[in-house]
């Protein structure tokens, strides 16, 4: 069975409580449940991971490489806009990487318009709320 790793970044453990105008009221557990259900329907295993520690995120990306994951989905949150460490870890991967954002980062504050991952990921999906995750999973599968 193909394995997709879903990486959730900083503050995502607060989904459902944090800024409902931007992120809605769906919790991280509910998002992961939707990904698991779609993964099962599509015949892939989805393993989710969340951390608020940048080094831990890099370690998990290294593990995805070592475990031969078939694709990686990442919503790194604010790290998207400045973490060259996470970018360098993602660049090690040789499988499709899809960047995901619930909100439309291009319609928000100026600092959110730039993704330091954009040059190395297969693509970016943003602005569709929880559906961004499900679209990202489908996109990763089609890119494999």
What is the name of the CATH topology? Rossmann fold
Distance between the termini: 13 Å
Strand neighbour order, sheet with most strands: 2-1-3-4-5
Poorly predicted regions are none
What can you see in these coordinates?
- The protein is α/β, with parallel strands linked by helices and about 140 residues long.
- The chain has one domain: Dehydroquinase, class II (Rossmann fold, 3-Layer(aba) Sandwich), CATH 3.40.50.
- Helix content is about 40%, strand content about 20%.
- Strand 3 (about 70-75), helix 4 (about 85-90) and strand 4 form a beta-alpha-beta unit.
- Helix 3 (about 55-65) runs parallel beside helix 4 (about 85-90).
- The chain is globular.
- The mean pLDDT is about 95.
């Amino acid at each position: 069975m193909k394995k997709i790793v879903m990486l959730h970044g900083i503050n995502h453990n607060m989904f459902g409580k944090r800024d409902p105008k931007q992120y809605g009221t769906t919790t991280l557990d509910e998002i992961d449940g939707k990904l698991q259900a779609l993964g099962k329907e599509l015949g892939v295993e989805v393993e989710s991971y969340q951390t608020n520690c940048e080094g831990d995120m890099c370690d998990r990306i290294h593990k995805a490489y070592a475990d031969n994951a078939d694709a990686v989905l990442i919503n790194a949150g604010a790290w998207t806009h400045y973490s060259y460490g996470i970018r360098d870890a993602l660049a090690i991967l040789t499988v499709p990487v899809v960047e995901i954002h619930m909100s439309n980062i291009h319609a928000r504050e100026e600092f959110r318009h730039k993704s330091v991952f954009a040059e190395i990921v297969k693509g970016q999906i943003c602005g569709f709320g929880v559906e961004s995750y499900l679209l990202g999973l489908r996109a990763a599968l089609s890119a494999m």
